[in-house]
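User: Here's a structure from my thesis project, written as structure tokens. My advisor, Dr. K., wants to see whether a designed sequence matches the one we expressed. Can you design one independently, without my sequence as a hint?
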């Protein structure tokens, strides 16, 4: 095997992958904590600055303390954000669905006007084209 012949045994390769994975997890944790920290509406600028200093100068202790002390609040904030996003999406879908039914309503109203004799057949066709166009 090429790796073994160059003095890089499988155990060293596994250790390298483990360390690489740990660094990826570490940076992911930092990004998650900073994202949560700067999205917090309940904390002022000095509190955010203090946590930032702690996380930068005492990174391992800072991350552990933040996760231990704020884990429940982090989960609640994430849940609230997800619910707000879902409500926003539902509202958007309902508004789009409502506008899709409007052309049919407009054509129905135009048809009623045509039957009452308030508009001509040409005007009805024009209204129908406008309703279908958008």
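Assistant: Designed independently from the structure alone:
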């Amino acid at each position: 095997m090429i790796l073994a012949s160059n003095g890089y045994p499988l155990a060293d390769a596994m250790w390298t992958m483990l360390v690489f994975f740990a660094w990826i997890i570490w940076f992911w944790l930092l990004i998650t904590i900073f994202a949560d920290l700067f999205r917090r509406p309940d904390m002022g600028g000095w509190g955010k600055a203090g946590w930032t200093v702690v996380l930068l100068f005492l990174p391992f202790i800072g991350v552990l303390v933040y996760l231990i002390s704020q884990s429940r609040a982090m989960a609640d904030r994430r849940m609230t954000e997800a619910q707000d996003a879902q409500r926003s999406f539902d509202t958007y879908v309902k508004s789009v669905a409502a506008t899709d039914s409007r052309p049919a309503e407009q054509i129905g109203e135009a048809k009623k006007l045509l039957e009452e004799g308030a508009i001509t057949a040409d005007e009805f066709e024009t209204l129908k084209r406008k309703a279908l166009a958008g």
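When you compare it with your expressed construct, this may help: The radius of gyration is 31 Å.
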